[in-house]
Write a structure and sequence with these properties.
globular; 22% strand; 291 residues; three-stranded antiparallel β-sheet; single chain; alpha/beta; eight-stranded mixed β-sheet
């Protein structure tokens, strides 16, 4: 029987993690579906998370809490989860942020990614007026590092990279193993864009799981909101650091352009978010250039 492995990285967000697991249990309605959940605690919420693991186990999902390693970052945390899930025999790895909720379809729908082949990366859907909306994809400007969403027609130009949103990303077992999981060069942000570049290099396609809707609140633990007044210094810093690492790794000749775009962004942040926001961006840029 094919198994779905679900990776959840928790950072000071145990209540959201509990809510996500409750939504997983509620949507596990297809008889015979095997589900394993690995919760990685990147903070120090062991008692709360042990209760979440127990709840999942009581509802027929094999579960494990991985803790005691400190905050190793989002990419490394998911790699820890995936290692256990693969050991358990998972056919797919489904990465979910704690602040996501399954709102349409059943967990068994995640296995649809295997119809594309033994190597594929699947995007779930954004909730829509009739339950399912557009595919949950992002685009990255390969000259400036600015992220956004594909056009309604789904057309992506040559200067942009299409990637599966990292808060809900389904990867087949073989694809995960061939890719080596997420690159741990990235502590937070840009890991899904890096995965998209490396997937394209290996000829691993993107599939859309249309009948699996996932709602994402966004910024629950990191403060990664689009509101520049509310965005946290952690988000400003790591987005800037990871942006520089991404361009140094994949588009080194364009580093000066990406750097200029970040400096301009720091100027905008200074006007809207204040000196602390601008300082976090500049510190992140310097850290990324030195990494």
């Amino acid at each position: 029987m094919t198994m779905i492995g679900i990776a959840i990285v928790n950072y000071r967000n145990a209540d959201d993690t509990a809510g996500l697991v409750q939504s997983l249990v509620a949507r596990n309605t297809t008889p015979g579906t095997r589900v394993s959940i690995a919760i990685v605690d990147n903070s120090d919420q062991r008692p709360e998370l042990e209760a979440v693991v127990e709840f999942a186990q009581q509802n027929g999902m094999s579960s494990r809490l991985i803790h005691g390693h400190g905050n190793v970052g989002y990419a490394a945390g998911n790699n820890l989860a995936a290692a256990w899930l693969l050991e358990m025999g998972a056919a797919v790895i489904w990465v979910l942020n704690p602040d996501t909720r399954i709102t349409g379809g059943t967990l068994a729908s995640a296995l649809e990614v295997l119809r594309t082949g033994e190597r594929a990366i699947g995007a779930t859907s954004v909730p829509g007026p009739y339950g399912f909306g557009r595919p949950d994809l992002g685009v990255l400007d390969l000259w400036t590092g600015q992220s956004g969403q594909p056009s309604a027609a789904g057309v992506v130009g040559p200067r942009k990279l299409r990637y599966v949103a990292g808060h809900s990303l389904v990867v087949t077992r073989q694809a995960w193993q061939d890719l080596g999981g997420f690159s741990e060069d990235f502590f937070l942000f840009f890991e899904e864009a890096d995965l998209a570049v490396r997937s394209a290099q290996l000829g691993i396609p993107i599939a859309v799981i249309a009948e699996l809707a996932v709602d994402h609140a966004g910024g629950g633990a990191t403060g990664a909101t689009r509101d520049m007044r509310a965005k946290s210094r952690i988000a400003y810093f790591h987005a800037s650091r990871s942006c520089m690492i991404f361009f140094r790794k994949h588009h080194r000749p364009r580093v000066p352009l990406a750097l200029a775009a970040r400096v301009a962004y720091a100027g905008k942040a200074l006007l809207i978010g204040g000196p602390a926001a601008a300082n976090a961006i500049i510190r992140g840029v310097v850290a990324g250039l030195r990494a």
